[in-house]
Design goal:
single chain, alpha+beta, Gyrase A, domain 2, 19% strand, 4 strands, 155 residues
């Protein structure tokens, strides 16, 4: 990566050929003018450029994690899928406890496994309600949980 120009986006400066998914990585901290801190985590489910999540499963897991995560923490700012379909970004406010974030992720994924439906999976609440798969989301959660012991190993 030393020959590559440094870009403004943190993940564009990450050597995707050296990471080992799955992992959970602190990707950055943004400090606000009033002392708040946003911690952005890279939740990598799939190995970059080798595999990816299909869109219906990715979309459903996004809905499930976005809704269910707030049952475990009032520090959740956002959960959003990566365009490359290999993971998600999780942003939390004023919560610098990495192990605590791992526990939140584990609990949320466990909730996904027992979910009976995808929240907001309709044309009123979702911009592409036809693109969902509860079973696919649950498989992604199951696969990620099965490798929980590896979450701290990024490279």
């Amino acid at each position: 990566m030393s020959d590559v120009e440094k870009l403004n986006v943190e993940s564009f400066n990450l050597d995707h050929t050296k990471v080992k998914a799955p992992y959970v990585r602190l990707a950055g901290v943004t400090k606000g003018e009033n002392g708040d801190e946003i911690y952005k985590y890279d939740l990598r489910f799939k190995q970059p450029n080798k595999e990816h999540m299909d869109m219906p499963s990715t979309h459903s897991l996004e809905h499930l994690m976005a809704e269910l995560s707030r049952n475990h923490s009032d520090k959740i700012v956002d959960i959003s899928p990566m365009g490359c379909q290999t993971g998600y970004y999780l942003s939390v406010i004023n919560h610098d406890d990495y192990d605590g974030v791992l526990t939140i992720i584990e609990n949320v994924l466990e909730d996904v496994l027992v979910a009976k439906e995808v929240p907001a999976c309709n044309e009123v609440q979702c911009g592409w309600a036809a693109s969902h798969s509860l079973e696919g989301a649950q498989q992604l959660a199951k696969d990620m949980l099965a490798k929980k012991a590896e979450w701290k190993e990024v490279f």
